Here is the input.
Amino acid sequence: MVQKKWTSLLAVLMALLVLLVPLAQPAASVQAAAKTRVFKTELGKLVIKGTPKRIVTLSMAGTDAVVTLGLKPVGYTISNSGTVPTYLRNKLKGVPSVGALSAPSLERIAALKPDLIIIDHEFEFHKAMIPQLKKIAPVAGFRANSYKEAMNQLLVLGDILGRKAKAKSFVNQFYKELKSQQAKLKDKNLRVLGFFVNKDGINVWQDNSFSGSIFTALKADYAFKEKGDEYSDFKTVSLERILEIDPDVLFAYTDPGKNDLKKVKANPIWSQLKAVKKKRVVEVNRDLWSRSRGPLAAKLIVKEAASILKRYQ
Here is the structure.
C-alpha cells in the first residue's frame, strides 16, 4: 500500500515537472535576452542589455550596415542635401526620418524609443550630441574610411545585433566578388581620379578615401596621393592642378538632377584634360560613391567601378 502511494506521488511530481519545464524555458530565454554584453567600438566600451531591436541610425553608413544585416532601423537621417540614397530607398519605406545628417532631432529620436543609436563618430555635430543621445539609448560610433573598415565594422555590428552569421556571410561573399573582379583587370594600367564640386570649388578624393581604397583594390593607379587635413579624405584643388595630374579616367561624383559640373565645364582648362578629350569622364552617384560608406555601398561600387575600368583598359 505504501509503495503504491509513493508510486502515485512520484507520477504526480513527474507530471508537474513536465508541465513546468516549458513554462521555465521562456523565462530562461528572457533572462538570456537581457544579458549584459560589452563591445569595443570606436567610441570606447559599449554596454548593451540583450539584443537591440529598435535602432536609430544617424549616419548613412549605419543605415547601410543595418539594412545589409536584413534589418530596418526605426529611424534614420537623410543627407544634408535632402536625399535618400537610391539603393536604400525601397528598403526604408515606411521608416521615418529623424532629420538631416548634420541636424538630427533629439525629440524625434527620443519619441522612437530606440535601444541603440548609431552615429558617425568623426562628425563634430554627432560628437557634440553624444551626452544627450546617451540619455536616450546606448550609442555606437561607426565610420568607414575604406572598404576593409566597412567590412570589419559590419562584423562587429552583426555581433551586437545578433546577426553574426549574416554579417560573416556578406563579408565572405564581398571578398569573393572582389577577388573575381581583380582577376579580370590589368595591373595599374589606368590612372584614375575621383572628384566632386561644391560651394568651395573642386574637391578631389585622396587615395586613402573610401572609394580610393576600392580603386586601388581594383588595380587602378589612383592619381591623387597627397594628404589633406587629419579628419579629411579629400582636398580642394584648382582645375589647373587636375590638369597637372591629367588622369586617364575622371570620376565625377554628382547629385542626380543637379548640374554640378556646369561651372567646371565652362572653364577652358576642362577641354584640355586627357579624360575629356578621350570621353573618359564618368558621372557616378555621390550618395552611393562617397556619402554612404557602408558595406552594401562598397559591394555596389566594386561592381560599377570594375565595369567602368574594364571598358577603358
